[in-house]
Write a structure and sequence with these properties.
The chain is an alpha+beta fold and 645 residues long. It is built from 19 helices and 22 strands. 31% of the residues are buried. One of its GO terms (biological process) is mismatch repair.
């Protein structure tokens, strides 16, 4: 029978380190929070090699009493609480007394600290949890702690770390969010000797946000706030322009503690969706101040999650405050200047205009099908010009068109041809079509190939400008034009990447993109993958990049928006993914260049799309796994109409 053993202090500290110290960013979080609890007004963070070689934090806080400096590294030693009741009324960021002994057990520690009431400070050196030096030292008020060679004696833990650039990005995420929540503290951050940012500590949160995220983010933020008897919610919600494809730019603080909470996140997202048409996640910074006794922060080893006593009240205050701010912003954008409120007049309304037949009058913003109904609009037309109704005939009647006549009259006007749908005959692969020369319809002869996965369909038409209807024998086919084109582009792009035959196009004006540190590290980590995929990216300094070339078929897309979406998707993949998986994800996102739903296609375009789809490797599923084509046999259709049983 195995006996029960009492673990020694060193072993228990290493086990605790596995929960508290997951990676270098965990160490940074604990040390910075200690500095904040010490009432520091300036904090300097320095790291090397993603925090593996060095994490150094210097502050001007209260310091540690010289008699307590060695005690601070004993298990469960803390100045934050005294009894269990204090856990339910926490006003500090730290309180368990686990972080420092856990960190010391798996690294080399050098700490210096001095409090204002003493002339000198103390220096302590700890190696793997054992104190080797404890001596007096001369230094200014505050604390300086160096953590070197993290996980040097726990190699199993060290091998699970990500790349140094990725670990640095995670540290940047932590220190950036802490800097935003504490705008009254000047925080300076250095990575491998290079200054990344320095906040002012002037108490202005917008200045801190501008330092971290840049001017474009600040220019697209809306302030919100709300209050109840027990809590307050305030912060900033981003407009549609800065929404992203991931939740990486969603920041939540509860009593200045950086946490993750699904309830509060959903509240903000639901409020945002009420005023947004984009299918992306909003940028937001939400700070909740609440009585400490109404929350429980002791439910997660790293204190990264929190539990509210009344979930519904938190959801309501977050939703209502964001919803009101967005609503007010919409109303403000439509508000007329004060001097124009009393100047608006309604003039020149035809007295004989029959409003009962108004559906027969063409809207002035719809392209007219005959010149005498409404005035043609152009980009330079004035507001009054666009509203002017001219020469309305008294006997206005619906106009019928002859398709061939319209085609002849408009054969030199490409814009007008977009508004016409002229039925054309089905073309077999071995057959040419004789048409009236005035219509000028020509078709390319498509040769049959033995590897076609879909029969050669006859195009019947386009439904809802989204689905192509075709038939073959006694079967009707419905093709999702967007999904089909997506899959065509996807397969071709992946094959071009594999064969290194990417056709690229230089941007007329190279695109300068300012990135946050986290996004910048993703670019550096995957630079060769982007280059092979057809994106020429150069470093532009200060976490900025210069995008000079993109794959040729992406020329109509916004290059900045696309690249940010690609970064978000690579983030969501996590670490350890193969280059093939990353190429697949890039190709999936790049397929945004495909024809969209509700795009009007000509018959020739529909034939071209289907004839290309027939010969790709998998024409039946889009890159996201959805079907591209469904079919309905004559037998199934007649059953629907109960013509047969």
């Amino acid at each position: 029978m195995k006996r029960i053993n009492l673990l020694d202090t060193n072993t228990s500290n290493k086990i605790a380190a596995g929960e508290v110290v997951e990676r270098p960013s965990s160490v940074v979080k604990e040390l910075i929070e200690n500095s904040i609890d010490a009432k520091a007004k300036k904090i300097v963070l320095e790291i090397e090699n993603g925090g593996e070689s060095l994490i150094k934090v210097t502050d001007d806080g209260n310091g540690i009493h010289p008699d307590d400096i060695e005690k601070a590294f004993m298990p469960h030693a803390t100045s934050k609480i005294q009894t269990i009741e204090d856990v339910y009324n926490i006003n500090t960021l730290g309180f368990r007394g686990e972080a420092l002994p856990s960190i010391a057990s798996i690294s080399y520690i050098n700490i210096k600290s001095k409090s204002a009431e003493f002339d000198t400070g103390r220096m302590l050196q700890i190696e793997g949890g054992k104190t080797v030096i404890n001596e007096e030292v001369s230094m200014p008020n505050g604390t300086q702690i160096e953590v070197k060679d993290l996980f040097f004696n726990v190699p199993a833990r060290k091998k699970f770390l990500k790349s140094q650039s990725r670990e640095a990005a995670l540290i940047n995420e932590i220190i950036s969010r802490i800097a935003i929540a504490n705008p009254d503290i000047a925080i300076e951050y250095h990575n491998n000797g290079k200054k990344v940012f320095n906040t002012y500590g002037n108490g202005n949160m917008l200045d801190a946000i501008r330092t971290i995220f840049g001017k474009n983010i600040v220019d697209n933020l809306i302030y919100f706030e709300g209050h109840t008897d027990t809590s307050s919610a305030y912060g900033y919600i981003g407009k549609e322009e800065i929404s992203r494809g991931s939740r990486n730019n969603q920041i939540l603080f509860v009593n200045k503690r950086y946490v993750k909470n699904r309830l509060a996140t959903v509240a903000v997202e639901n409020a945002f969706k009420s005023f947004s048409t984009v299918n992306k996640f909003p940028f937001f910074i939400l700070l909740i101040d609440i009585y400490p006794e109404l929350i429980d922060v002791n439910i997660h080893p790293q204190k990264a999650e929190i539990k509210f006593k009344d979930d519904r009240s938190i959801y309501k205050i977050a939703f209502d405050s964001v919803h009101k701010a967005l609503k007010d912003d919409v109303f403000e954008s439509f508000k007329l200047p004060e001097e124009q409120v009393h100047e608006e007049k309604v003039e020149n309304i035809p007295l004989d205009l029959d409003f009962h037949n108004f559906d027969k009058v063409y809207h002035p913003y719809v392209k007219p099908q005959n010149d005498y109904i409404v005035k043609e609009n152009d980009d330079e037309a004035t507001y009054e010009d666009k509203q002017q109704v001219v020469d309305l005939p008294v006997d206005l009647k619906p106009i019928s068109f002859n398709a061939e006549e319209v085609a002849v009259n408009n054969q030199n006007d490409e814009d007008d041809n977009r508004y016409l749908e002229v039925s054309r005959p089905y073309v077999e692969s071995n057959q040419s079509v004789e048409t009236d020369s005035s219509v000028k319809n020509t078709y390319k002869v498509v040769e049959e190939k033995s590897n076609a996965k879909i029969p050669n369909l006859r195009i019947i038409g386009q439904f809802n400008k989204t689905y192509i209807i075709g038939e073959y024998d006694d079967t009707m086919y419905l093709i999702d034009q967007h999904a089909a084109h997506e899959k065509i582009l996807f397969e071709k792009y992946l094959k071009d990447i594999e064969n290194s035959h990417i056709q690229v196009q230089s941007l007329l004006v190279p695109c300068v993109i300012n990135l946050i540190m986290d996004d910048y590290e993703i670019i550096l980590e995957n630079k060769s993958i982007f280059e092979k995929a057809g994106f020429l990216i150069e470093d532009f300094g200060d976490n900025s990049i210069l995008l000079k070339e993109v794959p040729y078929f992406l020329d109509k897309l916004n290059p900045k928006s696309l690249l940010l979406d690609l970064i978000d998707n690579l983030k969501n993949l996590g670490s350890g993914k193969t280059t093939e998986v990353k190429y697949n994800r890039i190709a999936t996102m790049a397929c945004k260049a495909a024809v969209k739903a509700h795009d009007l296609l000509s018959t020739e375009e529909m034939y071209e799309l289907l004839n290309t789809l027939r010969f790709i490797d998998d024409p039946f599923h889009c890159p996201h796994g959805r079907p591209t084509i469904i079919k309905l046999t004559l037998n199934e259709l007649e059953k629907k109409f109960r013509r047969i049983q």
